[in-house]
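Notes, p. 3: input format for complexes.
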Amino acid sequence: MSTIELSEAMRIRLSHQVMEEFASEHLYDHMADEAEHLNLHGMAKFLRAEAADEHVHARKLADYILSRGSPVRLPSMKGVPQQWESPEKMFMDLADNERHVTELYHGHMEAAMAEKDYATVAALQWFVTNQVAENQKAADILYHFAQIRQAPFMITAVDGYIGGMK
Ligand SMILES: [Fe+2]
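Output follows (166 residues plus fe (ii) ion):
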């Protein structure tokens, strides 16, 4: 079946995803505050920019739902951790979150294909492709944290590296 309006199931799926994008914004903005508190200004800058990107993703998806003549109905927002054991642990959470979001998009894509909702398949393509870059960035950062496990004083160099990533 292919219709102009989103199916009810797809509207619920995509609305949930809008919440996930706002939750990612909230999470990364809070991580930026934590980095700032630790004087890791490069990481804070990177995380602030990531948070801003997540806001754009949320809007892009919400606008798509609206363009299909469907309302956006957000489920309540997920919470974020208050603090992290270490900056490395914080970025591990970022990598986990990006992996989680990637799996969600793959599920949405499968559902859109099963519904033969080709417009949604096309709209989701951008998000699926973007997740490849997000996961690659997270892996790059975790590689650099792994490199300095025996040399914690190198955190300042890693901070500079991450700050230069965006
Ligand atoms: Fe996103």
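The mean pLDDT is 95.
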